[in-house]
């Protein structure tokens, strides 16, 4: 029996579980593109457009009217430029966030030194479908104010998030502006304490309110903590949460997930293996932590963007100093619904390359934007990478000579026991089976030394578990498969 553990060859069938996720393998790179001139050009936000092409914003020192200008690049589905526009004045101006609007035009949010009331102001540009300006607005006071996130809201207006030095209680505060479809202000809010606080990302939630993430030096456990704010539709605070340790921690992207909780992409100096690690946090609807995951090596990693994928997992983009070819590289991590890694990829050359925004595409592939010092025409260039769809285990099982572990679930929901049958298949150095609840907590673990494993609905301490959703995870030296089970008592 010891030989099974040492060198197991099997096909796994789980009976009385539930249909779930397939094991995803890293997709192929379909194409990469660089855009820019002889100076620096930085890409910060990408969206797939209704025609299957892409829209990108950021800032350019190569083109435009001033020091740096905001830009829009519209491409076709292959990444070839259809048109390119710059926006700005004689000083430095930039774009941080872009979205296609309901009229097929675009909304860009960023910051401007060329226009407005103060040192730096929030810069909002509304264009038509060809990038021609419909209107421009600035928002702010006498000090520095800027935007990093914009979204069209259900009423046809827009919500903007950033940081303000002009308003609020402290040195800097989270700055949120609600405007109508013409850019006229409906309300503004500042959130924070006496120290420096800033907002990085905002999204409208299913109840009509908003979720905001950033960093806070006013509250929490450390120098800076991840700062999560939930508001109602008028911007009034419903609750706030901080996450972090004694060092610097910051949140850069937040989304409401299918279960109406939240997923946050962050960076942490307080926890992990290296100087800074990429940090993924999953919360419930009230912001209470369900689980957290750390990714990285001995150097620095940070997560700037996260999306929930069509199978309930996550795709995260950021940078890594620990892995890859250069000083910094694009860092892409694909996880299951519990944040456990399915695959990771780095992209870049021998110098510095940063990814800042990732989206899942209509064909279930991915598009990532950032900037590269390794390739292109100038100092830094906009760097766009298009990945194809993932392949899964079920597809590979149909290939002769390549049998892999497979989880089949019958019936679902279930009131009975779970039987796991071991049959000949591909080689693996080890095999383990674990069961988790929806909070990501380990319920039961098995060491499959026999051809049949039975789960009696109890945890590792022999206690009966309650009705609900559970995740059955099979791990081998070759792969990991997670399946969902609904247990009814």
Automatic annotation (TrEMBL):
It holds the Pfam family FlgD_ig. Residues 419-477 form the FlgD/Vpr Ig-like domain. This is FlgD/Vpr Ig-like domain-containing protein. InterPro entries: FlgD/Vpr_Ig-like (IPR025965), Secre_tail (IPR026444). It comes from the Bacteria. Coiled coil: none annotated. The lineage of its organism: Bacteria, Bacteria division WOR-3.
């Amino acid at each position: 029996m010891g030989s099974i553990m040492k060198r197991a060859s099997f096909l796994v069938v789980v009976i009385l579980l539930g249909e779930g996720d397939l094991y995803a393998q890293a997709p192929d790179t379909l194409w990469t593109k660089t855009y820019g001139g002889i100076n620096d050009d930085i890409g910060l936000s990408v969206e797939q457009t209704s025609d299957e092409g892409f829209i990108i914003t950021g800032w350019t020192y190569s083109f435009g009217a001033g020091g740096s200008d905001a830009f829009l690049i519209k491409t076709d589905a292959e990444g070839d430029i259809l048109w390119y526009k710059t926006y700005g004045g004689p000083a430095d101006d930039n774009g941080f966030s872009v979205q296609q609007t309901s009229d097929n035009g675009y909304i860009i949010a960023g910051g401007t030194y060329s226009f407005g009331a103060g040192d730096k102001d929030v810069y909002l540009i509304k264009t038509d479908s060809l990038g021609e300006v419909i209107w421009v607005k600035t928002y702010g006071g006498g000090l520095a104010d800027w935007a990093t996130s914009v979204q069209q809201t259900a009423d046809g207006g827009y919500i903007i998030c950033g940081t303000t030095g002009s308003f609020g209680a402290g040195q800097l505060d989270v700055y949120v502006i609600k405007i109508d479809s013409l850019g006229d202000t409906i309300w503004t809010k500042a959130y924070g304490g006496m120290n420096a606080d800033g907002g990085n990302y905002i999204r409208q939630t299913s109840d009509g309110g908003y979720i905001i993430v950033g960093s806070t030096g006013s509250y929490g456990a450390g120098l800076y903590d991840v700062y999560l704010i939930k508001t109602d539709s008028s911007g009034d605070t419903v609750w706030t949460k901080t996450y972090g340790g004694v060092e610097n921690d910051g949140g850069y992207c937040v989304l409401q997930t299918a279960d109406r909780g939240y997923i946050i992409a962050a960076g942490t100096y307080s926890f992990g293996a290296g100087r800074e690690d990429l940090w993924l946090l999953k919360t419930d609807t009230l912001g209470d932590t369900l689980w957290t995951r750390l990714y990285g090596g001995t150097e620095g990693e940070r997560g700037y963007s996260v999306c929930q994928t069509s199978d309930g997992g996550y795709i995260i983009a950021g940078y890594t100093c620990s892995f890859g070819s250069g000083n910094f590289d694009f860092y892409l991590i694909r996880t299951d619904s519990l944040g456990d890694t399915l695959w990771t990829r780095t992209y870049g050359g021998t110098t510095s390359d940063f990814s800042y925004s990732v989206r899942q595409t209509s064909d279930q592939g991915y598009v990532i934007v950032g900037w590269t010092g390794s390739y292109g025409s100038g100092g830094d260039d906009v760097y766009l990478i298009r990945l194809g769809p993932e392949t899964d285990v079920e597809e590979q099982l149909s290939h002769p000579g390549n049998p892999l572990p497979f989880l089949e679930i019958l019936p679902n929901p279930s009131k009975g026991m779970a039987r796991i049958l071991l049959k000949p298949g591909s080689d693996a150095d080890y095999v383990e089976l674990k069961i988790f609840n929806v909070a990501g907590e380990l319920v039961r673990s098995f060491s499959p030394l026999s051809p049949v494993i039975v789960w009696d609905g109890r945890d590792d301490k022999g206690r009966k578990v309650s009705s609900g959703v559970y995740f059955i995870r099979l791990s081998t030296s070759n792969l990991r498969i997670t399946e969902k089970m609904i247990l009814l008592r």
